[in-house]
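User: Hi! I have a protein structure encoded as tokens and I'd like to know what sequence might fold into it. I'm fairly new to this, so please keep things simple.
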């Protein structure tokens, strides 16, 4: 393979050794990490950029990338990349989008959805903190069981389907809404409207992609219809939920609780001023994790190797 190809691996921490070996057969590999300023200074000489979610590959970065031909992102979502600028510059984007057969072997985010459900239902974070503060107070942390509850899944794609299958093991009644009416699966109740999910369900999980159409897909009208004892789980992307409406609903006790693995601010650098993070500091009915849904060694190493091999196939197709 052409050793003149210059590859920048932006986030090598915990990166798959097997994937790294594949990259090294393709060209000269430079490993990060890089600061934002270092990225802008150095990106111009590289042909290939390998990234996760730790950097915004925005207009400024892409305009500095004078030699860049390929971006490799081991993600399904691509809102960390300015796709319009990349297209204008004729940069090829290789990602996990559309790789359904491979992605069926990746379980991390669906499992994390249930971790968040358990964290809320069994009050695990606050119970742990109480013990760390020197208390042993069982009665303050009485929770809820999953058995017999109604779970509403918004988006019955790969992740929604996995969550539905997990739910069946807990004897949960599963309802699902998808904008594509042809999408269905055995053993669940398909609903004809989003409102039915809000009206019926005790637990609601979101599994839809970020897009212009899906921005604020879950907004105040939905929260106003939810049961007061219902909880919301979002492991998809932050901008699919109207965060102002969510915060208001939590403050006004229109819903019981929420757990988020994603925030809209994670892509604009304003996490330090996030009203949701500020609220969560002092309220137990909001749990936030730093987009770790897909962050398991198993899933990351599988996807990194898959993407390195996808880059390898891309180069072979260009030969």
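Assistant: Happy to help. Inverse folding works backwards from shape to sequence: for each of the 319 positions I chose a residue that suits the local structure. Here it is:
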């Amino acid at each position: 393979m052409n050793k003149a190809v210059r590859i920048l691996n932006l986030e090598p921490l915990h990166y798959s050794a097997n994937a790294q070996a594949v990259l090294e057969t393709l060209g000269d590999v430079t490993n990060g990490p890089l600061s934002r300023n270092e990225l802008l200074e150095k990106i111009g000489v590289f042909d290939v950029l390998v990234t996760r979610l730790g950097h915004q590959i925005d207009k400024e970065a892409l305009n500095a990338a004078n030699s860049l031909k390929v971006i490799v992102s081991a993600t399904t979502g691509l809102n960390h990349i300015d796709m319009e600028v990349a297209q204008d510059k004729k940069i090829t984007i290789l990602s996990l989008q559309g790789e359904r057969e491979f992605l069926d072997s990746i379980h991390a985010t669906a499992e994390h959805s249930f971790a968040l459900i358990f964290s809320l239902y069994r009050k695990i974070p606050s119970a742990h903190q109480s013990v760390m503060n020197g208390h042993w107070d069982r009665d303050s942390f009485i929770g809820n069981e999953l058995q017999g509850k109604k779970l509403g899944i918004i988006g019955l794609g790969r992740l929604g389907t996995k969550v539905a299958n997990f739910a069946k093991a807990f004897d949960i009644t599963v309802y699902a809404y998808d904008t594509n009416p042809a999408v269905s699966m055995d053993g669940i109740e398909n609903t004809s409207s989003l409102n039915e999910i809000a009206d019926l369900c005790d637990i609601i999980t979101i599994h839809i992609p970020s897009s212009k159409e899906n921005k604020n897909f879950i907004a105040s009208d939905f929260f106003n219809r939810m049961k007061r004892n219902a909880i919301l789980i979002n492991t998809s992307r932050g901008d699919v939920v109207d965060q102002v409406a969510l915060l208001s609903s939590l403050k006004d006790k229109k819903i019981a609780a929420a757990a988020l693995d994603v925030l809209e601010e994670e892509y604009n650098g304003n996490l330090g001023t996030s009203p949701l993070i500020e609220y969560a500091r002092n309220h137990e009915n909001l749990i936030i994790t730093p987009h770790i849904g897909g962050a398991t060694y198993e899933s990351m190493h599988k996807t990194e190797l898959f993407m390195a091999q996808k880059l390898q196939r891309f180069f072979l197709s260009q030969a």
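A useful reference point when you look it over: Residues 297-318 form the longest helix (22 residues). Feel free to ask if any position seems puzzling.
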